[in-house]
């Protein structure tokens, strides 16, 4: 009779709720969304750490799972653990891996983990000096959490200098990471990290840019697919050995061991895989295409990871189906999303994970930027892309979506024929 509390309100938390519900009796989501309520999950309107602790105690929650980074960097895991409550995620100190790019870059450089060369500066003068002598393009990253909007790539010194003028007008001592521009395909590794064991999920590829052809501004993620067959297992194993395992060892050596989900953003450069960034939670929309591949009990496995016991986390065969997920967003996303738009009706074999939705006149309508993720699985990417887009295009929805999610995988499949 286990009960689980999931914290968050997006499509990622929706698929976690569905996956936990395969084996536990009670799944609560705080604060959740109206789509989750419609699917039968109990949502609780709480967002503050002390209130969540009181809820977990009063409902005798067996496991709390945190979807996004904000509460992790605030120290929710430390606070729950201080009360003797089971929670899966990194402590505040370990969550710095996502919370501070300056912290992470200095750790990577100290332990020789492959990543873009970088310097951290904390003043306008220092930044100008570096930018005047840097190779271009150059990458400039704000230090703290920025919801995917903290990274700028500049082609010329003039635009870079104008960019940092604005930053230092707002904060005289803003910490900035200035780094080398890397090139190559990107993929993400998701690792379930326990006290004694680490389990890696099938890799995924996200599409962060808003528009087709990887143009437009960065978003939280417009679509993803998994597994990524055109990236060889040898590359993945090299990335695990050179980018994932050493950072976990480094965190241990530093006295801040990492537990929870480690998301390693990898760029496959000509010099091998390098770290773009780490996140301390699952990706959204990547969770929506990775979790359905789990063929064992999520709850039991996470409890075993927390307890330092052996786990048996298993995934569908790598040559089984490919999962393709497309984010449907409100027009105006990411800056000014329209609310109150009706939602498309999709065929039964499309998995729908709701995010920014609300109930209005007895039906679900849009209430946020990313509204839902639509996921399909098929034996090939060509079939998945053809069938999912046929279903989406037939709905004539007002929501917007990219039309080319999975383009690299489709091109690789077609080239093999
Ligand atoms: P991040 O928020 O660090 O994941 O960065 C967002 C996106 O910016 C990444 O997915 C990359 O596409 C791009 N990016 C970040 N760092 C670099 C880099 N050093 N070189 C080239 N592209 C980068
Ligand atoms: N999809 C990217 C992220 O979750 O950060």
TrEMBL record:
Keywords in alphabetical order = ATP-binding, Ligase, Manganese, Nucleotide-binding, Purine biosynthesis
Q: Which GO terms describe its molecular function?
A: ATP binding; metal ion binding; phosphoribosylamine-glycine ligase activity
For the keyword Manganese, the answer is yes
Protein's GO biological process: 'de novo' IMP biosynthetic process; purine nucleobase biosynthetic process
Co-factor requirement: Mg(2+); Mn(2+)
Q: Could you tell me what this protein is called?
A: Phosphoribosylamine--glycine ligase
Name the SUPFAM superfamilies on file. Answer: Glutathione synthetase ATP-binding domain-like, PreATP-grasp domain, Rudiment single hybrid motif
Q: Which organism is it from?
A: Weissella viridescens (Lactobacillus viridescens)
**UniProt xrefs under InterPro entries:** ATP-grasp, ATP_grasp_subdomain_1, PreATP-grasp_dom_sf, PRibGlycinamid_synth_ATP-grasp, PRibGlycinamide_synth, PRibGlycinamide_synth_C-dom, PRibGlycinamide_synth_C_sf, PRibGlycinamide_synth_CS
Catalytic reaction list: 5-phospho-beta-D-ribosylamine + glycine + ATP = N(1)-(5-phospho-beta-D-ribosyl)glycinamide + ADP + phosphate + H(+)
Domain ATP-grasp span(s) in chain numbering: 105-307
Q: Which family does it belong to?
A: Belongs to the GARS family.
């Amino acid at each position: 009779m286990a009960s689980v509390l999931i914290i968050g309100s997006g499509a990622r938390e929706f698929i976690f709720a569905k996956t936990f519900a395969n084996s536990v009796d009670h799944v609560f989501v705080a604060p959740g969304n109206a789509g989750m309520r419609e699917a039968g999950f109990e949502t609780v309107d709480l967002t503050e750490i002390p209130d969540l602790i009181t809820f977990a105690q009063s409902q005798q929650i067996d496991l709390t799972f945190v979807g996004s980074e904000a509460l992790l960097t605030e120290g929710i895991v430390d606070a729950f653990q201080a009360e003797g409550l089971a929670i899966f995620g990194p402590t505040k100190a370990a969550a710095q891996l996502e919370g501070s790019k300056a912290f992470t870059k200095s750790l990577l450089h100290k332990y020789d983990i492959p990543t873009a060369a970088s310097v951290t500066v904390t003043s306008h003068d220092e930044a100008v000096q570096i930018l005047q002598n840097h190779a271009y393009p150059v990458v400039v990253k704000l230090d703290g959490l920025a919801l995917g909007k903290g990274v700028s790539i500049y082609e010329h010194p003039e635009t870079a200098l104008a960019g940092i003028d604005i930053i230092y007008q707002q904060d005289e001592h803003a910490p900035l990471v200035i780094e080398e521009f890397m090139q190559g395909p990107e993929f993400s590794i998701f690792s379930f990290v326990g006290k004694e064991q680490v389990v890696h999920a099938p890799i995924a590829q996200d599409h962060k840019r808003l528009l087709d052809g990887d143009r437009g501004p960065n978003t939280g993620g417009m679509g993803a697919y998994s597994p990524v067959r055109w990236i060889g297992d040898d590359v993945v194993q090299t990335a695990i050995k050179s980018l994932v395992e050493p950072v976990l060892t480094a965190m241990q050596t530093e006295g801040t061991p990492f537990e929870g989900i480690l998301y390693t953003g990898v760029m496959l450069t000509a010099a091998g895989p390098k770290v773009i960034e780490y996140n301390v939670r699952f990706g959204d929309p990547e969770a929506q295409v990775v979790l359905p591949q789990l063929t064992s009990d999520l709850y039991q496995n996470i409890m075993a990871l927390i307890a330092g016991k052996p786990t048996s986390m298993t995934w569908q065969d790598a040559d089984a189906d490919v999962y393709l997920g497309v984010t449907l967003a409100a027009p105006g996303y990411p800056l000014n999303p329209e609310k109150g738009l009706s939602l498309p009706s999709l065929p039964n074999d499309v998995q729908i994970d709701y995010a920014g939705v609300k109930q209005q006149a007895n039906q679900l309508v849009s209430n946020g930027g990313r509204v839902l993720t639509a996921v399909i699985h098929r034996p090939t990417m060509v079939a998945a892309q053809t069938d999912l887009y046929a279903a989406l295009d037939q709905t004539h929805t007002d929501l917007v979506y990219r039309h080319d999610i999975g383009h690299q995988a489709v091109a690789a499949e077609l080239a093999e024929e």
